[in-house]
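User: I'm new to structure prediction. If I give you an amino acid sequence, what do you actually give back? Let's try with this one:
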Amino acid sequence: MGLSEREQQLLDELERSLTGSSADKKSKKLAPENISAKRVIAGSLIVAAGISVLLAGVMNQAMGLGVLGFVVMLAGVYLAASTSSTK
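Assistant: Good question. You get back a string of structure tokens that encode the predicted 3D arrangement of the chain. For your 87 residues, that looks like this:
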């Protein structure tokens, strides 16, 4: 059973509105000018330091140190994945 002309128009309009808005958001967020190499490098170094602290906590059976290492890792990932907010 096919769609009526009115239903087809509504479906096309809905599809255009959905694909247009998500494409605009992605292009703005992932635009090359929003990605900073300094942030990615700093975030990666912080993640590596967090892994070291986490492993030190596991080897010494110090739960607090392990949790601290995990938090440091999360902060590094957040920094590396964040985009600059200059407009």
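You can read the tokens as a compact description of the fold. Here is one thing that stands out. Residues 1-30 form one domain.
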